Amino acid sequence: MKIKALTDLPEKAFRPAEWSCSARFNRVSGFTLLEVMVALAIFAVAAIALTKIAMQYTQATSNAILRTKAQFVAMNEVAMMEINKEWLDGTQSKQVTSQGETWQIDKKAQATISPKIQRIELQVSLFNVDQDKVEAGISHLVFFNHPKES
């Protein structure tokens, strides 16, 4: 292995330290404060938009679950009326606890062309036990009922 002479080294090797430091500061490198602030503003707006989308998705999912539960409550009520061959006169309201929630079921009977069949409208609403009031109706179902056989 051959050792190089000092004359074979590049000229950069003999520059004083202050030359390389001053050259580094004169050269444009990195981002300016304005560029960083603009980038942060863009990131903040994007993060807020993504958070809003995630919240809307969560709310929509929660509402879909609640509507599905209300539909099951309505279908269970229809099944119980059919099993018991219940004939409804006028309107009826009751509260049931099902699937971890308290529901109010409002039923309204209407006559049809045939005297042996009645039209029943069911409205299932979430019942707020703490405030003892009915919140907005969640599920609406219509079915046709047959009377008891004598």
From TrEMBL:
Component of the type II secretion system required for the energy-dependent secretion of extracellular factors such as proteases and toxins from the periplasm. Its main location: membrane. Residues 67-126 form the Type II secretion system protein GspI C-terminal domain. It is a single-pass membrane protein. One of its GO terms (cellular component) is type II protein secretion system complex. Belongs to the GSP I family. InterPro entries: N_methyl_site (IPR012902), Pilin-like (IPR045584), T2SS_GspI_C (IPR003413), T2SS_protein-GspI (IPR010052). The chain crosses the membrane at residues 28-50. It holds the Pfam family N_methyl. Keywords: Cell inner membrane, Cell membrane, Membrane, Methylation, Transmembrane, Transmembrane helix. Coiled coil: none annotated. Type II secretion is composed of four main components: the outer membrane complex, the inner membrane complex, the cytoplasmic secretion ATPase and the periplasm-spanning pseudopilus. It comes from the Bacteria. Cleaved by prepilin peptidase. It is found in: Cell inner membrane. GO terms for biological process: protein secretion by the type II secretion system. It comes from Acinetobacter suaedae. This is Type II secretion system protein I.
